[in-house]
Amino acid sequence: MNKLDAVCRAANLRPNCAFECANGKTIGAKMSGELIRLEREGDVFTLTMHAGENRWNTTFVRAFAGALNEVEASSGPAALVTASASEKFFSNGLDLDWVQDPAAHPEGGDRQAFGKEFMALMGRIMTLPVPTVCAVNGHAFGAGFMSALCHDVRIMRADRGFMCANEMQLGMRIPEPELALFRHKMSLNVFFETVQLAKRWAAPAALEAGILQQTVDMDELLAAAQAKAQELAPLGANRENYGGQKETLYGENAAINGVHGPTYMLKNSHQFGH
Questions:
Q1: In 66-223, at which residue ranges do the beta strands (DSSP E only) sit?
Q2: What pLDDT, on the 0 to 100 scale, is given for residue 274?
Q3: Where residue 46 sits, what CATH number does that domain have?
Q4: In this prediction, what percent of the chain has a pLDDT beyond 90?
Q5: Which residues constitute the domain of residue 137?
Q6: Separation of alpha carbons 55 and 143, rounded Å
Q7: From CA 147, how far away is CA 40, in angstroms rounded?
Q8: Res 31 pLDDT > 60
């Protein structure tokens, strides 16, 4: 049992769910304070990251996953907005201090579990059976950029912040699952500039490149994201259908990964089901 699980179990809480619901009921706890806050108004859940630069470690992954449990346990029309409480960062990527010396930063949780759990969480966000909208309020680097791309819709403040896969600058290779994510979300030239040249995308350029669906002023960002989520929430009423189509798009033997092009598939649709 890791330290976070022990604290949660001692408090009679579910392990690994360090977030708080809007009604004030504490669902989970973290020793150094709140990481994730989940609120619901009508059909829209708003998940707000409260961890400073929102750097990813195992404790943060598990807190985020715990909030998604609450979203997935709901029924009826629903959509999720992911936002940040930071004035500067949406997410500044991996918690590198913890990665380099986990013993000195035990609050980050189990280092050995991180890779598998983080990647699984990204896949879960990508195929969440309700519409997801990401409100990018500032810098989104590395794993932070990756998490934003896992959402169905991305809206960013127009005047500040960069989105960047900065692994090349850090002397790191981008793992193949992450490359697959970028390739599915970007055109080929944008994909190459992003992963190989580590291009920093400001909001106007990211909008033009198709990485974003919308840019707005900062004081309108959360409201715009929540309005978009409310618009899309009816699609989330049929979770099996909405999530199932995402699996067809992005899951095993995904349609857009097929060896045949769309013209062949359209002309021979009897081979692929309807």
A1: 79-84, 89-91, 132-136, 139-141, 153-157, 162-164, 201-202, 214-216
A2: 55
A3: 3.90.226.10
A4: 70
A5: 3-237
A6: 8
A7: 21
A8: no
Write down the mean pLDDT value for the chain: 86
Cβ 229 vs Cβ 236: under 8 Å: no
104: left (phi over 0), alpha (psi -120 to 50) or beta: alpha
For the entire predicted model, the pTM comes to 0.84
Asked whether residue 9 falls in the same domain as residue 60, the answer is yes
What are residue 173's phi and psi, to 5 degrees? -85, 145
* Judgement on whether residues 262 and 178 belong to the same structural domain of the protein: no
Query: Which position has the higher pLDDT, 2 or 247?
Result: 247
Whether 27 and 138 map to the same domain: the answer is yes
Residues 153 and 255 in one domain: no
Which residue is associated with the tokens 């918690």?
Answer: 95
Q: Contact at 8 Å (CB) between 229 and 134?
A: no
Beta-carbon count within 10 A of 141 CB: 26
Whether the per-residue pLDDT at 145 is higher than 90: the answer is yes
Q: Report in angstroms the alpha-carbon separations of 223 from 83, 217, 265.
A: 11, 11, 40
Let me know whether 19 and 114 are in one domain.
Answer: yes
**CA 54/CA 240 separation, integer angstroms:** 31
pLDDT in tens, 216-246: 999 999 999 999 999 999 999 999 999 999 9
- Provide φ and ψ at 154, rounded to 5°: -125, 125
Q: Which of 1-5, 20-24, 209-213, 262-266 holds the top average pLDDT? A: 209-213
User: Residues 181, 96: one domain?
Assistant: yes
